[in-house]
């Protein structure tokens, strides 16, 4: 907005009183996944995955991949998530 005198001076808009602070949106799926990753079964599978990744990255010439360990971990986590997520849906 320009003032009546100098066109170089700008007037600031007053903050709107109705503006509410926006809360950061949290994806409930991510929250449930984090909780499921802390279960005993998922912790064990994540440790196996991390162990495999450490073993593979320590070798310069290997054909080993950690696909099986990754799929086992993701399957266990998603199984837990499905039970928690859809239990609340009615």
Please give a structural write-up:
By secondary structure, the protein is mostly helical. Helix content is about 55%, strand content about 0%. The chain contains three helices and no strands. The chain is flat, with a radius of gyration of 26 Å. The chain starts with about 25 loop residues before the first helix and ends with a helix. It holds the Pfam family UCR_hinge. It is found in: Mitochondrion inner membrane. InterPro entries: Cyt_b-c1_6 (IPR003422), Ubol_cytC_Rdtase_hinge_dom (IPR023184), Ubol_cytC_Rdtase_hinge_dom_sf (IPR036811).
Secondary structure blueprint with pairings:
Blueprint: H1 28-36, H2 40-58, H3 67-87
Helix pairs in contact: 1-3, 2-3
């Amino acid at each position: 907005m320009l003032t009546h005198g100098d066109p170089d001076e700008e007037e600031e808009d007053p903050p709107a009183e109705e503006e509410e602070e926006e809360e950061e949106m949290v994806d409930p799926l991510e929250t449930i996944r984090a909780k499921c990753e802390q279960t005993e079964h998922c912790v064990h599978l994540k440790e196996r995955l991390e162990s495999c990744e450490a073993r593979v990255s320590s070798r310069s010439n290997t054909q080993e991949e950690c696909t099986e360990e990754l799929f086992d971990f993701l399957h266990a986590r998603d199984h837990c998530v499905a039970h928690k997520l859809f239990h609340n849906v009615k």
